[in-house]
Amino acid sequence: MKSIAIRIFAAVTAWLACSLPAMAFEPKPAELGFQPAASPNMVRLHAFHDHLLMYIITGIVIFVFLLLAWVVIRYNAKANPVPSKTTHNVLLEIVWTAVPVLILIIIAIPSFKLLFYLDRTQNPDMTLKIAGYQWGWTYTYQLPPAEGAAANTEPQTLEYNALVIRAPKKADGTLGTPEEDIAEINKYIPEGKGRRLLETDNPIVLPVEKNIQILTTANDVIHSWTIPALGVKKDAVPGRTNETWVRVTEPGIYYGQCSEICGIDHSAMPISLYAVTSEEYDAWLSCASGGDGDPRSCVQKLDFDAKYRKNQKAHEVASTTTQPNAQKTGASE
Ligand SMILES: [Cu+2]
Questions:
Q1: 28 belongs to a structural domain
Q2: What is the pLDDT of residues 271-322, one digit of tens each?
Q3: CA of 253 to the centre of ligand 1 (A)
């Protein structure tokens, strides 16, 4: 009887999981918490924040607030005209040293466990190499070995740049209006569903449910490759290779940004990622590496937008066109 109930429950859960709409993992207006988690990395970060840090922070805030209120009310000049001259209290001093140390230890143990978990994956299914530069990202994929290739053949790679999509700069160096940016994005992504300042000309495409090793580096200054919903944030440092990993659990569109203040166009190096099924990923990789098109046109050819942006709302543009977005840019470009 019990096993039938479990089977029914499993079937319903599986059905619900399959019918979940492919969604876009993106920032929303007036958001307070994290974006929904879409990787085991982010699930653990959520748990660490929600089930440990939040309780400790809330307790400390309430305690300090009550302590302050007590001091203000009980020991102000009117209520306590003759103040005590006490200077030391051994017990109190031990307590206010030991308790914070204890709190830090309680935080440190799960925190280190989490850091090691996020550090690397033992069994990567694939590797994505990421290089940051002013102002964009270079992605390198390793291609599967050609049939009949010798074991010691150097693996072929697919390498491309991803740059923010926005309206071309005016002759006087000013940027376009939000509407002009959207018009530019609409050339790549149909139905106004592209996100301003978050879309790149060539997106990343990754398969879901695979352990992906991520290696970051940079060509000029320090950048940081970050996708909030995946719980990935890794500094990209010139002359150094940093490692992390991710396993995307939900198909959909993911957005991130460079998270290291890296110069004048720091805000113009977003990250856009399509997480697709393994079969779709293979089709995209062979299209993009086989000379059938660039990474974006292969996304269009394979109709990822129709499938993965189905439930994404069209971009809303502020009604005013006089918004002074015409920021002057530096002479270095
Ligand atoms: Cu950067």
A1: no
A2: 999 999 999 999 999 999 988 889 999 999 999 988 888 877 776 665 544 4
A3: 21
* 265 Cα to the center of ligand 1, angstroms: 8
Domain assignment of residue 179, given as a range = 126-145+156-308
If you measure from the C-alpha of residue 29 to the centroid of ligand 1, how many angstroms do you get, rounded to a whole number?
A: 23
CA distance readout (Å), 309 to 203, 230, 252, 312? 14, 18, 8, 5
In the chain, the number of structural domains is 2
Query: Ligand 1 centroid to 42 CA: how many Å?
Result: 22
C-alpha 137 to ligand 1 mean position (Å): 9
Contact 70, 79 (CB under 8 A): no
Q: What is the pTM of this model?
A: 0.82
Q: Same domain, yes or no, for 108 and 136?
A: no
Helix axes 40-48, 90-119, angle to 10 degrees: 170
Q: Is residue 73 part of a domain?
A: yes
Indicate whether 81 and 171 sit together in one domain: no
Q: Please indicate, yes or no, whether residues 249 and 286 belong to a single structural domain of this protein.
A: yes
